[in-house]
Amino acid sequence: MLYLISQSILDAADHTPWEPYCSWLRLFSYISLRSAGAAVTALALSWWLGPHMIAWLKRLKFGQDYVDKAEDAGGLSNRINKKGTPTMGGLMIVLTLDLAALLWARWNTHILLTVLSIVVLSGLGFYDDYTKITRQNSKGAASSLKLYVQFILAGFIAVYLWLLPSTSRLVTEVMVPFYKYPVLIGATGTVVGLIITVLSIVGSSNAVNLTDGLDGLAIGCTVIVACVFLVLTYVAGNAVMARYLQVDYVSGAGELTVVCAAMIGAGLGFLWFNCHPARVFMGDTGSLALGGALGIMAVLIHQPLLLIIAGGIFVMEAGSVILQTAYFKFSRRRYGEGRRIFLMTPIHHHFEKLGWYESQIVTRFYILGLLFAVVALATLKIR
Asked: Roughly what angle, to the nearest 10 degrees, separates helices 283-300 and 143-163?
């Protein structure tokens, strides 16, 4: 919005006595300035909105006023002691992120698709959180319903990108990390590309949701991944840098840098209130939306599989659940009783059961997240 306003003023002042006084508005054409502005705006809005949002959620009694059966059975006393802490804090993240992005970004297809995914998935998460709160001891929205909405959204985005001539190659040409050329093209590439696009969005959304189990864990790891995509989106949207680093240039993708910056600012602002001991929880309202946003941005810069590396923590969390469930079902058929690989999943609960303090787990996962981030950024040069 600020970009459009600044350009309108520059056009109106062109060849007039006001032109020298308006020249500073050209700064708004630089993605670097607008990204910094988006980050600061989102952070400042979060700091201002946080106390009001927490107080509002408490007045509405939007908190977990029951002991989760899984947590109780697992003996996770530190989680049970947080009874009554308000949830749906993801509303603050989504609101500040969207406002900052729409204010500072130059609107294009990439921005609108990303904002659309954030809004839709945030609404889905809100419904899930609201169902848990209003129906105590409820598991929230049915898993089938959540997957249905996620696949509908991801399918729409995949088909839209495929049908749009300017973005069709994001789907029809399959790229992999550490390799500069497409590994699949043509009809086969299209089918595989559509599947990868859908799974990237749905998988990322659910993986971040599974990570949201300890104070500051999900949002901190999300900020780390957003920092990686801050660099990747800028490179992908800059023709000179993309050519030099031999990565795929995607016209308009540079504006996603502004969204990444807004996500970093909103995430750090939320972490201010979500760090241990948390004053507010993100809930599915935030985790589903943030995960989906990372997935769609990975697709829009033509590097969906790179998210597996950059979001290694999320892969660990989701992978532990998949392995635990699969092995339990296999062992029950094979030995007559279900057996487990981990003490509890997602895997951060496994370490809780081992006696690790919550702050230890979160800090060590941050360190691992940074290592994954370095490897992901290394793909820019190692190709």
From this structure: 20
In contact, 366 and 224? CB cutoff 8 Å: yes
pLDDT one-digit tens code per residue, 169-222 = 999 999 999 888 899 998 899 999 999 999 999 999 999 999 998 999 999 999
Query: Contacts for 362-367 with beta carbons within 8 Å, 24 or more apart?
Result: 362/214, 362/215, 362/216, 362/217, 362/220, 362/276, 365/217, 365/220, 365/221, 365/313, 366/220, 366/221, 366/224
DSSP one-letter code for 29: G
Domain ranges of the chain: 32-378
What is the maximum span of the chain, computed from C-alpha positions, in angstroms?
86
Residue whose token pair is 């945030």: 122
Encoding tokens for residue 361? 């787990």
The Cβ of residue 251 has, within 10 Å, a number of other Cβ atoms equal to 13
CA dihedral sign of residues 160, 166, 170, 174? positive
* pLDDT at residue number 14: 83
